[in-house]
Amino acid sequence: MFTGLVQDLGSVAEIETGDEGVRLIVRTTLADEISLGDSVAVNGVCLTATSIADGAFSADVMNESLRRTSLGSVGQGSTVNLELPLRAADRLGGHFVQGHVDGVATVREAVDDGFARVVTFDAPADLLRYIVEKGSIAVDGVSLTVSAVDESSFSVSLIPETLERTTLGAAEPGRPVNLEVDVLAKYVEKLAR
């Protein structure tokens, strides 16, 4: 379980590609806090640390995750959002994020609005039904509040702290991002059936 509060911007040091999937090697200041088998959210995707050495960890990304997330488009040198799992005694500053990506959206536009930046994403219809104005959403693992939603897209307003501390500060049109809708919305829909 995560909160969607990014703890570090990691750098993809190496990618090992095979038929069974991909192994990512990510450099991070968090490496000393990670143990073998720990979960690490990488751009919102919950991965398992398979090795830790020299300020980096590795994680295997299976084909299923490559199909359902934007991790397949990450290259060597890419910057990624990183978060370690929530501890029972930690404050919950974002919202409950599982690291189970529901789908991929695409940045439509990013427009400055005072000191903030409004980023609009084109999203699949099957996910938009869970997205509501002023509701929670995780975009590339970042806990955000939806500022607007219509039949094909949604927007978020990013404060300078988010722009500086996450990859969303460099969001450009056409960029794919991982989406995890609020799990509570999915449960409410199921109970309403």
Query: What structural category characterises the helix and strand content?
Result: mainly beta
CATH architecture of the largest domain: Beta Barrel
Question: How many distinct beta strands?
Answer: 12
| CATH level 3 topology of the largest domain | Elongation Factor Tu (Ef-tu), domain 3
Q: Helix-strand pattern, N to C?
A: EEEEEHEEEHEEEHEH
Shape: globular
Give the helix level as a range of percent: 10-25%
As a whole number of angstroms, the C-alpha radius of gyration is 16 Å
The first-to-last residue Cα distance is: 27 Å
Mean pLDDT: 95
Question: Strand order of the main beta sheet, please?
Answer: 1-2-5-4-3-6
Portion in strands: 35-45%
Count of runs of 4 or more consecutive helical residues: 4
CATH class of the largest domain: Mainly Beta
GO molecular function, one term: riboflavin synthase activity
Protein name: Riboflavin synthase
Pathway: Cofactor biosynthesis; riboflavin biosynthesis; riboflavin from 2-hydroxy-3-oxobutyl phosphate and 5-amino-6-(D-ribitylamino)uracil: step 2/2
Enzyme class: transferase
Overview of the structural elements:
Its EC number is 2.5.1.9. By secondary structure, the chain is mostly beta strands. It folds into 2 domains: 8-83, Elongation Factor Tu (Ef-tu), domain 3, CATH 2.40.30.20; 103-192, Elongation Factor Tu (Ef-tu), domain 3 (Beta Barrel). It is 13% helix and 44% strand. The chain contains 4 helices and 12 strands, in the order E-E-E-E-E-H-E-E-E-H-E-E-E-H-E-H. It has helices at residues 63-68, 125-128, 160-165, 183-192, and strands at residues 8-18, 21-27, 39-42, 45-53, 56-62, 79-83, 103-113, 116-122, 136-139, 142-149, 153-158, 176-181. Strands 1-2-5-4-3-6 form a 6-stranded antiparallel barrel. Strands 7-8-11-10-9-12 form a 6-stranded antiparallel barrel. The longest helix has 10 residues, at 183-192. It is globular.
